[in-house]
Task: structure prediction
Amino acid sequence: MPSINDSKCILIVGSTAGLGRSLALGILALPSKPTVIVCGRRKERLDELVAAHGGDGRLKAVQLDVATDRASLKASVEDIVKQYPELDAIMLSSGIQHIYNFSKPETIDLDNIASELTVNYISIVSMITFFLPHLIKIGETRPSFIYTISSGLAVVPSPIVANYSATKAAIHSLSLSLNVQLKDQNVHVVEILPPLVESELHDHQGKSEVYSKFWMSLEEFTKATMECLERGDAQVPIGAIAGSYAKYETGKLDSVAQMRAAQLKAMEGK
Result:
């Protein structure tokens, strides 16, 4: 399978902090010297990133709020493609997380439930759909890539972040299906499954101090992930997630491919 070393221009959505920011800098440091487009809603963070790391001109920035309406999101994608016609890879790292206690249903904020679903899943599906015509076109002459970031919680959910876990399980399932569907178009779908990683994601929960005692550092996560991406792995379970992934997910991608082949054969027989 082609690897991230084959990418010439990659967009990282959700790269103003946390995993997305760290991976953007890891990709920028690749010997292949790709153009890296950092993307997020906080312009000041984007400007800081480019000022600090954009000395050679390969680091670009695009402001985008993935929670916007569908028409605006599509227009933004079209603008990005127009501005960067060499774009051959997208990495989708945006996400939000809330804690819920369903044993006290009166405390559940359904607006937060909807927001998580929109940012963590619906916006991802929408952006993939909007970028795909361009990525399929690129795939006619060289590999193109979609990098999704789900979570180890897609494999074994955490009850206190039940809705977040569900959105990541949806991304995991989608990634497996797209991997099989798009391979013939030379569009390669890679799923990254992080463990609990050092991140601002938990700041608003007041959990960062507790989690910091056992989360994986961003530096360690990025190093391990980049090794897998450079190797060309289609599924990238990192750190403590490797064990549960091996237990519950081994062979699943092959099974999805077999199901797809059987479905196509059945359709041909009609």
In short: The longest strand covers residues 187-193. The chain has a mean pLDDT of 94. Residues 67 and 115 are 8 Å apart (CA to CA). The radius of gyration is 18 Å.
